[in-house]
Amino acid sequence: MSNNNNKKPIMELVDIVKTYGTTVALDHASLRLFPGEVHALMGGNGAGKSTIIGIIAASRMPDSGKIYLGGEEVSFKNPSEAINNGIAVVYQELSILPHLTVAENIVGTNKKVLRNGLYDWDKAIEIAQDALNVLGEACLSIDPLEKVSNLRVDQMQMVEIARAVSFGAKIILLDEPTSSLNIHETESLFRIVNALKQTGISFLFVSHRMNEVRQISDRVTVFRDGKLVLDGKLMSEITDQEVVNHMLGRKLDIVTKGNADKIHEIENNPVRLKIKFTDNDKEIVVRQGEIVGISGLAGSGRSALLRNIIGDIEWKDIEIIYDGEKYDPGNPRKSIKNDIAYIGEDRKDSGLFLDLSIGETVLMPNRVYRSTKLVKEGKERKLVASIIDQLKVKMASIDHTPSSLSGGNQQKLLFAKWYVNDPRVFLLDEPTRGVDINTKQEIYKLIEELAERGAAVLVVSSEVREMVLLCHKIVVLRDGLPAVTLMEDDINEEKIMSVITAAEHVTEAGGTA
Amino acid sequence: MSNKSNNSSLPLKNSSGASRTIKRYKLELIMLVVLIGIMLLLQIVTGNALKSRNLMNVFQAATPIIIMAMGQLLIIITAGIDLSVGSIFSLSGMVAALTMNKYGIFVGVICALLTGIACGLFNGFFVAKVNMAPFIVTLAMNGIAASLTFIIADGNSQSILQTSFRNFDRGSFLFGIPNFIIYIIIIVVLMQFMLSKTVLGRFIYSTGSNENAARLVGIGTSNIKMFAYTFTGFLCGLAALLNASYLMTVECTAGTGLESEVIAATIIGGASLSGGVGSAVGAFIGALISVVIRNGFNLLGINSFWQGTVTGIVIIIAVLFGQISAQKRK
Fold first, then answer.
1. What is the nearest CA distance from B17 to chain A, expressed in angstroms?
2. Fold of A11-248
3. ∠B158-B161-B167 over CA atoms, to 5°?
4. Mean pLDDT of successive 10-residue segments in chain A (513 residues)?
5. CB atoms A453 and B11 under 8 Å
6. A379 and chain B: CB distance < 8 Å anywhere?
7. Domain A260-339+423-508, classified CATH 3.30.160.40, yes or no
8. A263 beta partners
9. Taking the CA of residue A231 as centre, how many other CA atoms within 13 Å lie in the half-sphere pointing to its CB?
């Protein structure tokens, strides 16, 4: 960890105010970034993180406040001015051009690539390769002439970072860069960040994940409700708990699964779901009231397994015994009719009707479940309002659209969808992706309530900590098949990580990776 | 899960049924005001825009557009598009004339409707089951139907010899109201009811808003798209019959270019090509606006070459309105 006390900040934001209508997004917020540091920016949903990124990138204009770059006051009128002054943003939802090659993406509008006014491909490849080389060995396998849509998500992210480097960025903003990466990809991203840090590039790292912030950052700044509550504290001088308390403004009571007695009690519950894999004769057993975690690397088939159970895809040869009877997955309609609830990993893609009123998202499964024919508006509105109330989803009106809600509240809507019936099985794919710690706790409580009501819950999560907190049992998948089942004392972060990693070694040896 | 707490606090506030309806149909109301405004203006300037004879002409001219716009609307709400409605209209009309002259009115009507349905099924199959882009499938269908029309008619226009077929359009089976107006009312009311009051309607909107999410909550999205295209084909057949009955002659190019008027009507009426938005009342008003503008040109004696320009400007303004009100909602 570097000590920056005697350096001058490369960028300083002072007293930034930004309002949207009557909402104050940033209330005299400040931020100082030093050369060659990784600076974590943390805060709950609605803390103003996205807004400040927008202001640094000049895609949003502050109402008041000053921005200094290298000691001089600046005021960029548009994003391209910010880019030309060495500020690059890698957004959570990547902004690359999927149908173009890696080289074209990295080179972009760089004038150096033009020869006599024409695009020089040799030069483009050279520039791209140079940028990729700076990032280090993780990028060596990326071919500059590959189409970006053929790359993995983590490689796409590398291409974005390479583009920033190639444009001579001095400051790179990473907005939740790890939310779609698995553990290994995260590790390799951090290696890249560390390598670039040595060349003097500063990073602003926005994340919800405390352990990652701890691992990569030199300093941390925390915003709460648009205000600065922790100003660039050295990570070595602060504990995780203190950071979290700053984010929440109060102490967090961590939800934990019941004690050992309770877990033993669950082991006597009747089996609700048994998934037999004909390929290796192993099975996953979920009892009533049990929360079973499905772990493994991204691509190990965690999500596919859930979608296989609801009949959205046909994937592995599995046999399902559901409450003692054989159950053939037909299609999502059949699974809903049979009290199976599913929450997908990408709420915008697979969960929400973003531009229809909130009630439509909440009520749709219920309409399918009950095969209703007519819309009874008054009744439906009351129902939606009471569900929204129970789940404490914050919104101005149920006539608004989900796109007007924050990420955490959008995620809660996904649970609201299943609050009308009483599903016997819940299949949850990354149930807390991209939500703040506070909402995470609320969602954990929700999931435990579901289990306590007797539902069988299958959870897929790439956050190992989340699995440890929630699950009574963890099944690690490899190549789409259950490889190891962890119970009781084996459920801890180290053990899970080692099993996942071991699984990968076996895979590599088998030559299928 | 139970929902005992009915002390639902914030979200329900200040939304009585009536004010909600006004809010929801704000765009449609604005368009209605625009429509009435244009008609009043024409009345003041020309003195005969609101005479029943002229109004009848307007409605007669708008009939095929309104009817086909109801189908087009369904498709556009599911985030699709149908470029073949004009050609299906031509083909169905030609089939009606040819079969009617040989086998009588009843057979002719059935054959025309079946032709429309068959074309719609073709579109629906390739869009919903084969997953091809609606633009491409219906562009192909557009060519196929237009060409088949010429083939079966040998390129000639066909007069309808069954004189009593005239009553299909202009006759009246209810209180002396002309049949074509009754058809319009029935279809628009049914469509509006289906879209706003039935669960099927909600399914149609949700399919267009987010097909993935809709499928995952058990909505048969591909059947819904299949239904939208097939029903549109049926409506094209019906529109062609009304038009044939009115003119008592069918030309090979009867429907050429109609698709753009039909799409324009739904867009002016507030539908969005990205899906999930639109209403039957809106599309109905949208169709009337474009026809009234055309009628205005005739009444004012302005060169009809200007029609396209004015309709184009109206589309742009209508879509701008929609975008502004959508942004306000967010």
1. 8
2. Rossmann fold (3.40.50)
3. 110
4. 63 90 82 93 80 90 91 89 89 83 86 82 89 85 89 88 89 86 85 91 87 90 88 88 78 56 78 88 90 82 89 86 89 91 90 89 88 86 88 82 84 88 90 83 89 91 83 86 84 76 44 33
5. no
6. no
7. no
8. none
9. 11
